[in-house]
Amino acid sequence: MIVAQELVGKIKDHFDLNLYETKVWLALLSKGVASVGEVAALSRVPRSRTYDVLESLEKKGFAIIRMGKPVKYLGVKPQMILERIKQDIRKDAEERVNILAKLKDTEEFAKLNEIYTQGINPVKKEEISTSLRGKSNISNFLREIIDSAKKEVVICTNAQEIKSKAKLFSETISTLKKANVKIKIALSGDEKMIKELEEKLGVKIKRIEIDSKFFIVDRKEVLFYISKSGSDSDDIAVWLNSDFFVESFASLFEKAIGEK
């Protein structure tokens, strides 16, 4: 059996197998049912190693023994393997999430917070500014600072961005309203789409021509993008926590859109 090395390498990585396991499993799939000798010949894996490899594949669920003389092996259908791996990953992820959810109530986590807030050189938020890269990192950080808003949140982006994340923004705006936080939204883009979003979100939206994307929280924090959205790794944003700068930034923005 001749299989391209590139395919062997990809299957090996996708299914977390070693090289010999991959070759033997492919041999079983191509043969259907095979003896150890047949597997060794097809896979070109040394016969002395084939026994161990078949045993390993059986334990991992990639092969089944068919009893008899001689003993033969059957390769498990790829679709069954794929579904089992997906289930295992989901189960592991759920268990990990549950463990992390309980972590905040532990003594160790309390100690971590104590070290962070009362260490030798405790972090002062007003001294922090940082750059963020990647959609996921930026979104998580943005959600955190918006959730901490007490008075006002300013959202300036484009209509398509809001529409593509309508559920997320709807939940965020609902939460802010319940907390009596003032919401200001200014969007660039299609006027009809903006009107639809205004009705859907239940908040007044100002249409602007400014092609920018930033978020201001309580006139103390600002997160603004310095690159246009592309792939996940292309997004770059800067977060600043400076009353003086953000107040000035917010005032300039309000003048630009005709407020105050």
Question: Key terms for this structure?
Answer:
18% strand; Endonuclease, Chain A; 11 helices; 260 residues; Arc Repressor Mutant, subunit A; 7-stranded mixed β-sheet; alpha+beta
Total DSSP helices: 11
CATH architecture field of the largest domain: 2-Layer Sandwich
Helices and strands, in order, run as HHEHHEEHHEHEHHEHEEEEH
Biggest sheet character = 7 strands, mixed
Might you state the CATH topology name of the largest domain? Endonuclease, Chain A
Alpha-beta classification: alpha+beta
Rg result: 28 Å
Low-pLDDT sequence parts: none
Q: What is the terminal separation in angstroms? A: 77 Å
Description:
With 260 residues, the chain is of the alpha+beta class. The chain folds into two domains: 5-79, Winged helix-like DNA-binding domain superfamily/Winged helix DNA-binding domain (Arc Repressor Mutant, subunit A); 128-256, Endonuclease, Chain A. The protein has eleven helices and ten strands. It has helices at residues 5-14, 19-31, 36-43, 47-60, 78-103, 107-118, 135-147, 159-164, 166-178, 191-201, 243-256; strands at 33-35, 63-66, 72-75, 129-133, 152-158, 182-188, 205-207, 214-217, 221-225, 236-241. The strands form two sheets. It has a seven-stranded mixed β-sheet with strand order 4-10-9-8-5-6-7, sandwiched between helices. The chain has a three-stranded antiparallel β-sheet with strand order 1-3-2. The chain is elongated and about 85 Å long.
